[in-house]
Specification:
The chain has one domain: 3-Layer(aba) Sandwich (Glutaredoxin), CATH 3.40.30. It is built from 3 helices and 4 strands; from the N terminus they run βαβαββα. It has a 4-stranded mixed β-sheet with strand order 2-1-3-4, covered by helices on one side. By secondary structure, it is of the alpha+beta class.
C-alpha cells in the first residue's frame, strides 16, 4: 500500500481540501495517509510554511495549489513503479 505524506498545520483549509480529495481517491488508489504537522518541527516549518499543503507520494512532491487531478496522476504514476 502506498504511503502519502501530507505536510499540514491546524487551520489550513487548503490542507483540508487535499485530504478530501485523497479520501475520494482511496477506492481507486488505496493508500495510507500520514499527516505531519509542520509546527511541531522548526526545520519543517521553515521549509514548508509558505507552500503547504505539500504532498509526498514516493518520489513525487506536490505543493499548493494541489488539484485532485494532480493527486490522481501522482498516485497512478507511483502505483505503477
Amino acid at each position: 500500500m502506498l504511503t502519502v505524506t501530507l505536510f499540514t498545520k491546524t487551520g489550513c483549509s487548503l490542507c483540508d481540501k487535499v485530504k478530501e480529495s485523497l479520501d475520494a481517491l482511496q477506492g481507486s488508489f488505496p493508500h495510507q495517509l500520514q499527516e505531519v504537522d509542520i509546527t511541531q518541527d522548526e526545520a519543517l516549518f521553515q521549509t514548508y510554511r509558505y507552500t503547504i499543503p505539500v504532498v509526498q507520494i514516493g518520489d513525487v512532491e506536490l505543493a499548493a495549489p494541489i488539484t485532485a487531478v494532480q493527486l490522481q496522476q501522482a498516485l497512478q504514476s507511483t502505483q505503477k513503479s
